[in-house]
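ok so I'm stuck.
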Amino acid sequence: MTNSEIYSCVTLDNENGNNVDMAERRAHHNALERKRRETIKETFTTLKDALPSLRGEKMASRALILRTAVEHIQTMHRRNTIHQQDIEDLRRENCLLANQIQSLEKTHNVPYLGDPVPLDSTSSESDSDPDCEGDNNKTKKLTVAGKTLIVHIL
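replied:
not stuck anymore, here's the structure
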């Protein structure tokens, strides 16, 4: 088909109303594309505002926003890992202290009042502290009032 044949077909279609439908479809497509671009722009703005280092910036390229977001996520992931390790260290220390208390109570003939309930526990299904269970068994010596106690850390 030559260009003149295509032009004559479009002219004929216009008389039949088909060309108007094509223009409406094109306008609808353009509106959808404009909406998609606006949504992406708003999302980048929201992401920029969520990043502490870019919060006050008026202009930031999309590449900068994405790069900064990746850096922020990596930093937060590292911090989360460190905090999780701190939590585990505190749990181990809590178990050590609970065992020391239990040993001292036995040594001084104080009635044993039971294992402490973890602060984040909402049920009392177990008589022992679940944070003290595991395969990290260690033995510590503790000297109190001239007496040496051997404490087993579970």
